[in-house]
Design a protein that fits this description.
The longest helix is centred in the C-terminal third of the chain and has 37 residues, at about 80-120. The chain has a two-stranded antiparallel ribbon with strand order 1-2. It is mainly α and about 140 residues long. It contains two helices and two strands.
Length: about 140
């Protein structure tokens, strides 16, 4: 590419400090130096990555524990690889925790609904003056 020697270098504007963003209002755009707050998409992405790491570790655990063990539960018995048996036990424990948590949340919602229906809807009382005020009295 050839440049035109008759064009002075000072007539070329400098590049912008940062690329413009759609919806940017240049009058309000100020860089404060603080990181932007996390978005929902960023949190979902981080949770997905964390979940994939945990699942990868679980696969490694199952592959390294392939010895068959004899398991009996409620009269049923059988042979299953150790890694699978422990994974099933962990998932079953997670379901028990989820069930107990769901029951407790339901209890709290029922209690909250009863309290809301019993108490009359009225305006909050006026705030009282504080006992110690910050007013300076003449001494």
């Amino acid at each position: 590419m050839q440049t035109n020697p008759s064009t002075p270098k000072t007539s070329i504007p400098p590049p912008p400090a940062r690329p413009p963003v759609i919806g940017d209002d240049p009058s309000r755009a100020r860089y404060s130096g603080e990181p932007a707050p996390p978005t929902r998409a960023a949190l979902v992405w981080a949770a997905t990555v964390a979940g994939l790491v945990v699942l990868s570790l679980l696969i490694v655990f199952i592959l390294q524990n392939q010895e068959p063990v004899h398991v009996q539960y409620l009269g049923l018995g059988g042979s299953v690889p150790l890694g699978i048996a422990l994974s099933i036990a962990a998932v079953a424990g997670g379901f028990l925790v989820a069930i107990v948590g769901a029951v407790r949340i339901a209890q709290l919602r029922i209690i909250d609904a009863r309290l809301r229906h019993r108490s009359p809807r009225r305006q909050p009382a006026k705030a009282r003056l504080p006992l110690l005020s910050h007013r300076h009295h003449a001494r």
